[in-house]
Amino acid sequence: MTTESALRFGAQTDEVTSLLRIVNMVRTGEATTRPEIGRLTGLGRGVVTQRVEAAIGMGFLEDGDFGRSSGGRAPRTLRFRADRGQIVVCALGALHIRVGLASLDGEVTAKLHQEWDIGRGPAETLDAALGMIDELLAAGEDRPVWAVSVGVPGPVDFESGSPVAPPIMPGWNGFDIRRRFEQHFDAPVWVDNDVNLLALAERAHRKDEPVDLIYCKVGSGIGAGLLSRGRIHRGANGAAGDIGHVRVRDSDVVCRCGKVGCLEAEAGGWAMVRDAHRAIEAGASGTLGAAASRGEPITPESISVGAMDGDALAISLVQRSARLVGEAIAALVNMFNPGVIVVGGSVSAAGEIFLAEIRQRVYELSLPLATRDLSIVRSFGDEQQPLRGGAELAIEQLFDTTFPRWFADGQPTIDGIRSS
């Protein structure tokens, strides 16, 4: 049986296993020359040469420049063919659509952004997103789409790729997002909560450490992505990290999800906007009050900017949000024991005014051992973060999870990914 037929029928021979490993070693930078591959795998020179030539013949690897000599002839480096295909990323937010294209090593090569209300429903929203993606594809190089990743601002059943009762996404419950993209691109698709994409983007900045990390996004809503030893922890059904709907003590405020007393209803961006309007109607002045009197909209971003500029109302709103968010994060710290907490989202733009309150509550309420080596930092925070995270998700699923299923075909297919 040839290597290709063995792979097609799922036979995990030593030859197949070592070939897969070599491709992934070069892809991740673990080994970049034939001698390095031999040292790390224990394979003989002839076997390494055979496997590398097979990977080059299949189009996964190519020869690069000569590396550094250790006394003899300089070895030629190997490169993963990141240009063989491309990844489509669609990051949907409550009030925007971001789409992008990325190479197989995760580099974002093109992007578009459009303001959009997710409440317009799945049909209209996905039509708009697919139109934006088609525009990028038409303007770029003609390379096949190997994978698609989609982020949405609500709970997702990761196995089915469908949102589950998303509070701010009317009409999306149970909608088969995966199928819509698979039909359009004829490529495998993964759908996840948007904050998980942001957590994966943060992981990309920390490639040398199997990090335990909590990414807490405080924007219009509130959510958290959990990384355990560098892997997303989604829980049994994909609901892990949904701290926006934990109960705030003594609160009787109705949340957008229909429940009472949720953290998001007290500390999320939309709640801060609500409270700002109430305070201004009660006579509060300052920059927020002046902006409202001029007819300018109050947004989570404008509240954060107002806090940075010293507006008393904005500072009080930001600090209260941070205290409540800090209490919820402290509970996660005691249970999850992360090494890093990353805070992102539009409200976090208030910087140290926001972070200082979170740090104080976390350190006050968490166990000393759980905070001994803990750092609490702001997100890198540029607009490409969800696109980078989406590329990371697709790459992880393609090469860490499903690689053996489609390797012989030279590129992933829907049937190859879904089969076991």
From TrEMBL:
InterPro entries: ATPase_NBD, ROK, ROK_cs, WH-like_DNA-bd_sf, WH_DNA-bd_sf. PROSITE patterns: ROK. It holds the Pfam family ROK. Gene3D superfamilies: 3.30.420.40, Winged helix-like DNA-binding domain superfamily/Winged helix DNA-binding domain. PANTHER family: GLUCOKINASE (PTHR18964:SF173), ROK (REPRESSOR, ORF, KINASE) FAMILY (PTHR18964). Belongs to the ROK (NagC/XylR) family. This is ROK family transcriptional regulator. The lineage of its organism: Bacteria, Bacillati, Actinomycetota, Actinomycetes, Micrococcales.
